[in-house]
Write a structure and sequence with these properties.
- This protein has 2 domains: 3-173, no CATH class; 186-227, no CATH class.
- Helices cover 44% and strands 21% of the residues.
- The protein has 7 helices and 7 strands, in the order αβββββαβαβαααα.
- Strand 5 (74-77), helix 2 and strand 6 (101-115) form a beta-alpha-beta unit.
- The radius of gyration is 21 Å and the shape is elongated.
Length: 232
């Protein structure tokens, strides 16, 4: 185990979801999850008589889950290499429970402030403010300062685990998981149709369509239509 793995494990062990969102990830739209990530400063050991807490604010944007092949299961933007490394390890360990759905996440950090108070008191104030606002999609997370976004990864993966059964159930109720005679789900066919419309309007690079068709191994079926995108 190299030093990065040791640091990642330490960050995971110190992560606590102090306040989880009251809603799960939506099935047919984008979910915006605002977070407050609280940590003790990395220099805390050097200033034992000073009570300070680092508060990072931001949001994780979870795109509408998509039905995919087993070859790709997640997409991450705005995370460090160590956070991605941790998420990859989670997918390898628990991927069977999210198999077939792609959850794409984007991390958008907003602010970082150092508050002159101990961490428990800061958390209590945050919870009080959130109770007054009644926001169902805000989380409070405790992490390790040096690898704070590993805590965000742990949080979103656990939220995905809680959401996937409901997402699959709702997709199935709408017939989106039904397969055609080539084994392609209805949701994937509909998505491909939407991609062609976007590309024709100039809103999507045609290469994205080629990649999607190759993932499903159905490019020959769409080849003429794909090539027609390049005709003047």
């Amino acid at each position: 185990m190299d030093i990065d793995d040791v640091k990642i494990r330490e960050a995971v062990e110190q992560t606590e979801i102090l306040r989880a969102p009251k809603q799960s990830l939506t099935t047919f739209g984008t979910t915006n999850i605002y977070y407050y990530l609280v940590t003790e400063p990395a220099y805390a050991e050097l200033t034992p008589n000073v009570h300070e807490t680092v508060v990072r604010e931001g949001r994780v944007i979870a795109e509408k889950p998509r039905i995919v092949t087993p070859y790709y299961l997640h997409s991450l933007e705005g995370f460090s290499d160590n956070a991605r490394r941790y998420f990859d390890s989670l997918v390898k360990t628990y991927g069977h429970s999210v198999q077939g759905l792609l959850y794409a996440y984007r991390n958008e950090p907003k602010e970082m402030n150092i508050v002159s108070d101990a961490l428990p008191a800061v958390v209590a104030k945050l919870n009080g403010d959130l109770d007054k606002r009644g926001d169902p999609l805000t989380a409070v997370i405790k992490g390790l300062d040096e690898m704070w976004d590993v805590a965000i990864i742990k949080f979103i993966f656990e939220m995905t685990q809680r959401s996937v059964d409901n997402n699959v159930r709702q997709m199935n109720a709408r017939g989106l998981l039904a397969m055609d005679d080539k084994g392609i789900p209805a949701e994937a066919r509909a998505r491909i149709e939407g991609m062609f419309i976007q590309a024709k309007a100039g809103d999507l690079d045609p290469r994205a369509i080629k990649e999607e068709l190759d993932r499903w191994n159905i490019f020959p079926e769409y080849e003429d239509r794909f090539l027609s995108l390049f005709l003047k």
